[in-house]
Amino acid sequence: MKQEILWIDDEVELLKPYTIFLAEKGYEVSTCSNGPDAIQMVTVHNYDIIFLDENMPGMNGIETLAAILRVRPDAVVVMITKNEEENIMDMALGHRIADYLIKPVNPNQILMTLKKHLHQKEIVSVQTIERFQTEFRQLSSEISEHLTINEWFDLHRRLTRWDLQLTDQDTGLHEMLHSLMDEADNAFQRYVKVNYEDWINNSDNRPLLSMDVFKKRIFPMLDSDIKVFLMVIDNLRYDQWCLLQNLLSESFETLNDELYLSILPSATQYARNAIFSGLTPLQISQMFPDLWVDEGDEESKNIHEVELLRTQLDRFRRHDTYFTYNKIRSANSLDKVFSEMKRSTAPLSVLVVNFVDMLSHATTDNSMIRELAANEASFRSLTVDWFRHSGIIDLMQNMGRLGYRIVITTDHGMTHIDKPIKVIGDRNTSVSLRYKVGKSLNMDKRDMRDVYEVKRPNSIGLPSPNLSSSYLIATGRSFFAYPNNYNYYVSYYKDTFQHGGISMNEMIIPFAEIKLKGSSV
Q1: Which residue, 165, 189, 471, 480, has fewest beta-carbon neighbours within 10 Å?
Q2: Residues 6+ positions from 33 with CB-CB distance below 8 Å
Q3: Domain segments of the chain as ranges
Q4: Which residues on neighbouring strands pair with residue 512, listed in sequence order?
């Protein structure tokens, strides 16, 4: 079906070359020489786009525009004018024109305007499909457990970039992409199983892990007399960070944007305690038993973060380093937090933000939130909306004005789960969905390909609540469920966002250094 154009110009006879040119390009063009007739035509017919001359006798272009928009509020109107005066442009834009052109116009300008306003989505989609098909083949050929960790980071960036790009386009490519992402995740899981023990036990030759963050990133900045505001956003995925980074780009300049690895289990108790202590969970439990909370204990698993950070500062003989620490669960406490930070001269300020973690738990416990965050795209959207309106950006700007370099990271990400695995354990077995700690853990051997079994926890830096304790860590989209009330719990937890296992979204996480634009930090 041809797209229809209405062209309004008092010198209608001069439009003949344009109408012939556009007809050859497949458009149907109607012409009109004055405002009143144009309004009547628009009333009885809905044109795809309207070209409107600004300088017409009688009812001029601005008046005609206003009348057209009263009849067709969604009309796409392009103003054509000889007048380049700013007030004319302001009036036209104020009446919500889609675009304007300055006379004389040539046919290619008209064609470009049509492509911009009528065909942009179609053109972008075609180009996107072509680029995706090319890179799909390339990405598919690259996926292998033999990649280096930096190659895995690059692959995760590229897959995430495509996921974000295809979310807003109705190209039908998402299913292909998600299949490719599952394939990559399977290879990544095999890669982690092969290499993880060596990473934990070889601190001089491994990728950046949770316990390395302060030693290898924060301390060097402090040694360069850079004041650091470290913001740990619990449970933040890399795709969410990409959108937050876009939101921050207006006020902040990115100095370093890298990826690193959460330790296993990729859960707050393990990963965040490792960040603040600079130690593996096993080392914390051995060196500071009063600061480690076992799985079976009722108290919060992260109540000793301040003490753990002090032990790390002491261990590295940083006796001159003092810091502020705050944890927020709602925006209401931000003003109080900033007041405290503003009064302090500490070179290091730490803020733990729990909202994203609370949101992920709400997808399980709250049916309305579960509906609102039913998939990755909607979950990302909720995260961005929260961040935009939370007041955290204002806090970051204020910290930047106080001379702080702002570091944003997380302890782990999360993944969408939909594959239940039956597991049997004693009554002291941990309740986590993505990992289990306990004695005599049993499951169907056919499901073992979806699990990382750790019979010697100390070999990967994990404590053993009992001498015979072992760990089962889920991979991919799997999650553990007990045989008792199996169907109920499967339906309750399926299609929620969880953490603690092995997947790119849980383990490959962002570390970014940004500064306020115009700041010398």
Answers
A1: 165
A2: 8, 9, 10, 11, 12
A3: 4-118, 122-191, 212-521
A4: 257, 408
- 263 secondary structure, DSSP code: P
Phi, psi at 329, each rounded to 5°: -115, -10
3-state secondary structure of 40: helix
The single residue listed with the structure tokens 């628009």 is 42
Cα dihedral 37, 43, 49, 52, rounded to 10, equals 30
Residue pointed to by tokens 């199996």:
486
pLDDT tens track for 139-160: 988 998 889 999 999 999 999 9
Q: Which CATH number is correct for 212-521, 3.40.50.10350, 2.60.40.420, 3.40.50.261, 3.40.720.10? A: 3.40.720.10
Strands 348-353 and 227-233: parallel
Looking at the chain, how many residues does it have? 521
Residues facing 30 on adjacent strands: 6
User: Do residues 465 and 295 lie in contact, with contact meaning Cβ atoms separated by under 8 Å?
Assistant: yes
Cα–Cα distance between 238 and 233 in angstroms, integer? 12
State the distance between the two ends of the chain, measured CA to CA, in whole angstroms. 58
The residues near 35 (Cβ < 8 Å, ≥ 6 apart) are 8, 56, 58, 59, 60, 61, 63, 64, 67
4-118 placed in CATH 2.60.120.260: no
Q: What is the pLDDT of residue 348?
A: 95
Residues 6+ apart with CB under 8 A from 342: 398, 402
Q: What is the pLDDT of residue 91?
A: 61
d(CA 256, CA 25): 48
Secondary structure (3-state) at 12: helix
DSSP letter at 456?
-
Closest of 326, 302, 309 to residue 395, by C-alpha: 326
Is-contact 407 227, C-beta < 8 A?
no
Weakly modelled stretches of the chain, pLDDT under 50: none
Looking at residue 515, its pLDDT comes to 94
3-state secondary structure of 75: coil
Show the tokens assigned to 506: 């849980």
The pLDDT assigned to 256 comes to 94
Helices (H), 25-148: 35-44, 61-71, 86-94, 107-118, 120-142
Domains 4-118 and 212-521 alike in fold: no
Q: What is the pLDDT of residue 128?
A: 76
Burial class of residue 80 (count of CB atoms within 10 Å of its CB; 0-12, 13-18, 19+): buried
User: Is 475 strand, coil or helix?
Assistant: strand
Residue 350 is predicted with a pLDDT of: 95
The CB density around residue 463, as the number of other CB atoms within 10 Å, is 20
- CB-CB contact of 30 with 54 (8 Å): no
